[in-house]
Structure formats: C-alpha cells, structure tokens
C-alpha cells in the first residue's frame, strides 16, 4: 500500500526581515510594487534605508520567485523567512510602504554592528550561565503569556520604551553578557545594535527568535515557560506551535490574558481585565486588533 503525503494549502505566507544598506529604497518602491503585482502577491512590504520587513502571501512559485530576486539581486545575501500556509489569500491588497525604520526603537541606531547570533540549540547553555543577563525585548502584553526561565521583563508597553529602561538599569548590565530575544528576531537584533552604540559590547540574540526555538528545541529540553504571543488570530502558541486553548485578548485594552488572569474578579469580558480594570491603554501602546491569518510580527 502506497503512503500518501498531505498536500499543503496552495497559498504560502512568508514573513521576513533583513537589515542591509538600502540607500535608494525610495526609488525602488514602485519597481518592487510592480514586481509583486505581476506575481499576484499581496501583503505588506516595508522598505527603509536600513532594510526590509514584510509579511506577504502568494503561490509557491510566486513567493519563491520574489524571494529569489530579493536574495540574489536586491540584497545579495541569504534571507531567512518564516512560512505558514492557507487555503485562501489572507490579504486584501498589496502595500509597499516607505518607513524610517524597519522596526521603530525611537532613537537613532547606527546599524553597523549587531550582537552575536545564538542558534536555538545553543540558547539554553547561554542563558543558564551566572554571568548572563537575559532581556525579553517584547511588549508587556506579550510577556504576560510566557517567557524564558530567568528572563527580565522590562514591563514596557512597546519597543520604543526599551532604550529608556536600559538606561535606567544600566548598572545591572555592566560586566555581564546580555542575551536578548523576541518573537522572530527583528526587535532583539536591532536592540543589540543599540546596546553596542551605548558601549555594551558583549551582547547576543536568539537567531530566529522564540518561534525558531520552538521548532528546533525539543519540548522536554525547553527552558520556555508558558505560551508565546503571536500577532494573528491564534493569540498564542505553545512550544509545539499549537494554538493556545486558553489565552484571550481583553476586549477593552487588548492585553493578552492567561487563564489565571481570566479568573480574577477584575476580569469582566468586554469590560475590563487585571491589566486595565476599565482604563484603556494609550492608543499607540496597543497591540493591533486587526489580525490576519498567518501574520507574524518579528
């Protein structure tokens, strides 16, 4: 009897970022738009002087074609991306947008040097050392669902607050190795460049982020505690990359809530939760409420 393999859905959703010198990014907006349109790819491509950041969807052939062009002609270097799949096109349109930064940290960053990549299978050994400070670079509503054992939670509403937190806690970083991580790699990589600009040289970041760690490290060896917030309809995934069965978003402030949060007296569905108690977050500090299937925020 022949074994059959289940075919993947026809639409490939690719999420990626890459830092590189891109001085003519403004002039490339329309050529990139035209190329993507010709391939019938939809989604969002952010282009900046420091690189690209994107989530896009199309057929296997279309995605392979564009990523091949990106690597071989535009960037001239390999690009790593995350893939998921759908039976339908999850994006309604194509946007190629000009931005000042691939991911906003709120302060100038030289982007000339970055911390050392740490492969997922080497991450446990690094963060288990006594001379290592582990910093979760994600937002508070993400950290609430889970983080690595021993990691510091800066308790920030968004990435732009991380530099000030770092200055306020500079003494605790002196003489230490600083290990940073985020969902897919872009925030922690940029943060290491900012740290190096501040004179903190011994910095590291998890290659591919938490999601790559989940893929590469067996559950029984995991130092992750809880679930990982993701920017799509699943809300969170566990180490096996399965959608959360318990996590929900507060409909008032958009904070991600654990099962314990939902048992608190201040949690009233659609009204309040322990993190807001009826007081909304500032609009700029909210996670996005318009979620699309397969979307990954790095």
Kindly describe this structure.
Helix content is 24%, strand content 22%. A hairpin with a 2-residue loop joins β2 and β3 (51-59). The protein starts with 10 loop residues before the first strand and ends in a 36-residue tail after the last helix. It is globular. 37% of the residues are buried. It has a five-stranded mixed β-sheet with strand order 4-1-3-2-5. A four-stranded parallel β-sheet has the order 6-10-9-7. Strands 8-11 form a two-stranded antiparallel ribbon. The protein has helices at 29-38, 60-75, 120-127, 140-143, 162-168, 170-173, 186-197, 209-216, 259-262, and strands at 11-19, 42-48, 51-59, 81-86, 94-98, 116-118, 132-136, 146-148, 177-181, 203-206, 224-226, 228-229, 236-237, 248-249, 256-257. Among the domains are: 11-98, Alpha-Beta Plaits (2-Layer Sandwich); 116-216, Oxidized Rhodanese, domain 1. Mean pLDDT is 88; it is low at 282-298. By secondary structure, it is α/β, with parallel strands linked by helices.
